[in-house]
Design a protein that fits this description.
Length: about 200
Amino acid sequence: MFYGYHKLNTNVAVEIKAKKAGRKPYYTKDNEYISRLISLYNSGASVYQISEQLNISVPTVYRWLKGIGLFKGRERDLEQLKLELELNGFAKIGKFIIGKRLEKTESGLRTVRINFGVGMEGRKFSSTAFFGSRPPVMFFIVKDENQFKFHISKLMEGLFYEHNPKPEQNLKKAFTHFVHSFGFERTLNDSPFENIS
């Protein structure tokens, strides 16, 4: 709002309060929407679900949550990722851009995109033969390369053996080539499910 002084023909300054342009806000912070927003957020509803239920935009939900002090946003998420990096040497992230943001804040980090749907060229078996369905693309931020390779190899082998409890020899060989195409090493020679009847 604009507050100012305007000098009239007299020598007395008169305060003029200018009107705010535009319509009045439909939602104000002192109405029932804030209490509904808080109860929905505390019950575990996502920002998108809150947006749909209250019929307000997603940016408005974020703005109100930040204004109330319930939502810390990116800072909290980045701190959580930094903690995971310290403990594990790597962390799974939702988007590539998050890894790039972290790379700027700390040296020695690398963002990795793994598409399990592709591997070596001209292979006989597809990723659906290995995993049952096409696995999603995954993004990781990596601090300790050895820990990352070890755990992702274990993840791939666990998914493989879960779908193929008793794989044929040629499927195991193809899977080994598939794992090597990512620069990883196999850790299990035999299926842990092989002797289970």
